[in-house]
User: Which sequence fits this backbone?
């Protein structure tokens, strides 16, 4: 029985969308108010989808305490109440939520092996959400 | 093909405990969920069916029938029950969110799949807003 397990986490962070290779005017045209000079913040929600066979002894795809421990210590605490532009992840990348989504996917993919990562969804606000799916995976 | 989803809620209690393990092992694996007095959740079950839209009715499936099946097979037997003690499947299966999705699928699929052309596509069980499990059945089943 292959089941998908979905878990949501929250953090609050600030960012500023600004490309140093563009002029100030081009940045304003491209990023609008997200380019305001001192940045702004969001309450982000991260949704992780893992798949795997249900263990017949525990009834679990993977132990939630282990997943929560990994996500909190490696990602959520890292981002919570931080400025994403200062994070090493975004040294050479603009901290859009698309980029954040991909970073989180790669971190979980490479460092958490208890179940197969299928999808990462990041909600920047209740109106904006971004998803990164395993390559070749049909959207579900 | 169009997907149609219907949600319903049930409130139930459960615990996770393996009688073949020591208390320490149960606590290590299941944490607070191993407390034998149980604890409860307001669950949400979301059933998704897939099918062609009937040109006469405009429906993928008659929603009244879907509601009836969902109520009869899942909500009535699970709501305000202790899942470990009062739902037969969980006498031998841990009532995790994952297994709830599988058990609900097995209860719903035969009834949904004999109505018209729509087929059960997914069962999603929310234990709370931050934890939910999806079951799509077995490939080729």
Assistant:
């Amino acid at each position: 029985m292959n089941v998908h397990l979905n878990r949501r986490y929250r953090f609050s962070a600030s960012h500023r969308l600004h490309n140093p290779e563009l002029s100030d005017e081009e940045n304003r045209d491209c990023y609008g108010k997200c380019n305001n000079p001192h940045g702004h913040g969001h309450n982000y929600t991260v949704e992780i989808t893992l798949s795997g066979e249900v263990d017949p002894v525990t009834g679990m795809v993977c132990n939630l305490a282990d997943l929560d421990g990994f996500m909190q210590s490696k990602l959520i605490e890292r981002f919570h109440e931080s400025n994403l532009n200062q994070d090493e992840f975004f040294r050479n990348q603009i901290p859009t939520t698309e980029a954040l989504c991909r970073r989180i996917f790669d971190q979980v993919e490479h460092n958490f092996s208890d179940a197969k990562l299928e999808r990462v969804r990041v909600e920047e606000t209740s109106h904006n959400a971004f998803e990164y799916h395993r390559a070749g995976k049909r959207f579900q | 093909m169009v997907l149609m989803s219907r949600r319903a809620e049930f409130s139930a209690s459960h615990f996770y405990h393996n009688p073949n393990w020591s208390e320490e092992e149960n606590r290590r694996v299941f944490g607070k969920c191993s407390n034998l007095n149980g604890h409860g959740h307001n669950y949400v079950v979301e059933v998704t069916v897939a099918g062609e839209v009937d040109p006469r009715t405009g429906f993928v499936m008659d929603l009244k029938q879907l509601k009836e099946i969902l109520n009869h097979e899942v909500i009535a037997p699970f709501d305000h029950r202790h899942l470990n003690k009062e739902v037969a499947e969980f006498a031998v299966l841990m009532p995790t969110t994952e297994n709830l999705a599988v058990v609900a699928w097995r209860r719903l699929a035969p009834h949904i799949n004999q109505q018209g052309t729509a087929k059960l596509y997914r069962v999603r069980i929310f234990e709370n807003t931050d934890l939910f499990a999806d079951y799509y059945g077995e490939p080729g089943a």
